[in-house]
Amino acid sequence: MTPNSSIQKLKDKSFILNLEIKVEDIRQEYQKTLKSIQLNFETKGFRKGKAPLDVVESQISPQKIFEEVATNLISYQYSDAVKDHHLRPITQPQIKFKTKNPDLEHSWQIEITGSELPKISLNQGYLKEIKSINQDKSIPDDNAKLDKIIQALVKHSKLDLPEILIQSDLQHHLSHLIDQANQAGITVQQYLESHKQTLENYQDELKKRIVQEWTINLAITQIAKDNKIEVSESETKDLLAKNPSLSQNTNMLYYLLTQQKVFEFLKKQ
């Protein structure tokens, strides 16, 4: 199906898609979903999968089938709209019904917010500062030098990070915090109090850290691109031999190797 969609692209590389899902498509998906449920439906008087559609329809939760129809239709049409508008989303979209009290008998207006990879602006003055860092004999060791190089990258970078990416990462970190607290047998509130923090302060610090992490990662990617720093197949095999678990995340594998090579490049400036 071809979605009826319009798009608003923002400077920070986020976008807002507006979809209209026609009632004809809703009814068609409803029948398709009903038949799918029928295949494994069991009820008194009928063998599994043999109950008539009207019997199935009368015994299933209207809310359940609405959610399934909506999930399927929005997923299909979002995927089509992404292709039509040549988008490359990097995060789960945020979906909002603009139609009040949506049902299966009327068309829907849907708003979807997502984001592509944001662009970073890296002031070339960073190289001058890094050269100065490399020549500074007072820096005690490589770790301290690396910290200063990272600080220089952040200082000379300009990044407008979409709010949807910040919130996505924030929720990930908060979920990790909840897991940590549960494993320790305490509440999140008790965990924060033990670190003399409020939830608000913790979130504020997290947001700053998230922006800095994105800045560093994108700066490294940009430097690799500008200086044609690439990762070879033999290098990936060597790292996988040392860390087999990385085979589950090839993006992380390539990033770690790229990061290592970029830092080696910067230390030689």
Rounded radius of gyration (Å)? 26 Å
The largest pleated sheet is described as: 4 strands, antiparallel
Count of alpha and pi helical runs: 10
Overall pLDDT score:
91
Distance between the termini: 54 Å
Q: In sequence order, what are the helices and strands, one letter per element?
A: EEHHHEEEHHEHHHHH
SSE class: alpha+beta
Reading off the top of the CATH hierarchy, the class of the largest domain is best stated as: Mainly Alpha
Layout of helices and strands, plus pairs?
Elements lengths: L3 E6 L4 E8 L1 H16 L14 H7 L2 H23 L9 E4 L10 E8 L4 E3 L2 H11 L6 H14 L1 E3 L3 H22 L3 H7 L4 H28 L6 H10 L7 H18 L2
Antiparallel strand pairs: 1-2, 2-4, 3-4, 5-6
Helix pairs in contact: 1-3, 4-5, 6-8, 8-10
Structure description:
The chain has helices spanning 23-38, 53-59, 62-84, 125-135, 142-155, 163-184, 188-194, 199-226, 233-242, 250-267, and strands spanning 4-9, 14-21, 94-97, 108-115, 120-122, 157-159. It is an alpha+beta fold. It has 2 domains: 4-115, Alpha-Beta Plaits, CATH 3.30.70.1050; 120-267, Orthogonal Bundle (Trigger factor, domain 2), CATH 1.10.3120.10. The strands form 2 sheets. A 4-stranded antiparallel β-sheet has the order 1-2-4-3. The chain has a two-stranded antiparallel ribbon with strand order 5-6. Helix 1 (23-38) packs across helix 3 (62-84). The longest helix is centred in the C-terminal third of the chain and has 28 residues, at 199-226.
What descriptors fit this protein?
single chain, 269 residues, alpha+beta, Alpha-Beta Plaits, Trigger factor, domain 2, 2 domains, four-stranded antiparallel beta sheet, two-stranded antiparallel sheet, elongated
